[in-house]
Amino acid sequence: MSETALEARHLYKVFGKNPNQAVKRLKAGETRDDVKDAGTAAVIDASFTVNRGEIFVIMGLSGSGKSTLIRMLNGLHDITDGEVIIGDDDIATASPARLREIRRERVSMVFQHFALLPHRTVAANVAYPLELRGVGKAERLQKAEEILALVGLGGWGDKLPGELSGGMQQRVGIARALAADTDILLMDEAFSALDPLIRREMQEQLVDLQAKLQKTIVFITHDLNEAMFLGDRIAVMRDGRIVQIGTPEDILTDPANDYVEQFVQDVDRARVLTAANVMERPRPVISETAGPRTALRQMRDAYMSATYVVGRDRTLLGIVTDRDAVKLVRKGSNDLRTVLKPAPQSVNEDSVLMDLFVPAVESVLPLAVTDAEGRLVGVIPRITLLAALGPGTTATEELTLPLQPMPQAIINEVLGEPADTVGTPVVGGGAAFFDASTGSATQKGEVL
């Protein structure tokens, strides 16, 4: 089965008296304003693919053309020029009868203002697509109840839409689209009419539903935070054109132009960026088979007072501190496993930054980042976590830490090396030095 669920190829939509002439002039290089005498260009040369099972978000301000574009994907708006390919069908050339079949079997839609039938019960609204297909009443109502339970409305099937809150009515709209059991779900500003708290709840429920059902979703929004939260990929529109397509991280960290950069400047980065986006190469790290001298050398060179310990497959096993390693050397033992301590904190590489603050504060080392198999793939120093959120403390600023680690001269003595040193490593610190005269640690460097 093809990985592409839907493909848009050079789409144009012009409203007005001479749309074909307007398209010709646009292709020749004229602007949207230039062709106003021939018509209003709502969508200009839009091309993209939507992969099976992804949430593809089309985002833009009012007048950008996003709502017109989504209606072109199922034929609700005629296509002035270009192609929309779904399976073996081109929406632009499909007959009216075939378009109706595609809407029943391949593409369903959730509207901003619910569009429920007020005189029908909730269950009957959900079952309506099945009724159009000729499914028997008992079967379609049973299916409706199953889907209502899936969206958190079990037991509400016999109510009328007017008896439900706005958020509940939108859930009915989603349930109705799911009842159609189509491959592709189009959602046009589906949550924008809801109160902020309900809207957030609906966004989270959509993500949960998508994890279970793996539908292909094209979602329209003007809300950047919503786009960043929901989208596997995002297309940013301006004045009818798509100006950038990319993952939320791409859009946030590598905007294509000044417009996109300005658009994303106020985004809540803590809900978008993940541990994998900001993590650094893990260090110091040693194998469980290494000896205490190797551990001490790694800690000294990295200016830290502990090191992560991993297995042969890089599975995170725990940490060893400088004090414990020194004790082993003096006892003549080489087995680090006897002094291995649990890692103070670790997070998955897919965790968003907003979930990392408490673990980072509780960890005496830069926060360990692991993959799904528990392998250590990176670390996040606290200063890096703060810097990733935008303006504020940077990694080159000086910080004072009330720490009392082992003097580095002792470590050098144990290693049989010269005792002179510029400082003492700080737990969790990089390029950080203990000042015996003040009893504090002053740090300048890349990690905290």
TrEMBL record:
Keywords: Amino-acid transport, ATP-binding, CBS domain, Nucleotide-binding, Transport. It comes from the Bacteria. Residues 279-336 form the CBS domain. Residues 23-264 form the ABC transporter domain. GO terms for biological process: amino acid transport; glycine betaine transport; response to osmotic stress. The keyword Transmembrane does not apply. One of its GO terms (cellular component) is membrane. InterPro entries: AAA+_ATPase, ABC_osmolyte_uptake_ATP-bind, ABC_transporter-like_ATP-bd, ABC_transporter-like_CS, CBS_dom, CBS_dom_sf, Gly-betaine_transp_ATP-bd, P-loop_NTPase. GO terms for molecular function: ATP binding; ATP hydrolysis activity. NCBIfam families: proV (TIGR01186). PANTHER family: GLYCINE BETAINE/PROLINE BETAINE TRANSPORT SYSTEM ATP-BINDING PROTEIN PROV (PTHR43869), GLYCINE BETAINE_PROLINE BETAINE TRANSPORT SYSTEM ATP-BINDING PROTEIN PROV (PTHR43869:SF1). Belongs to the ABC transporter superfamily. This is Glycine betaine/L-proline ABC transporter ATP-binding protein.
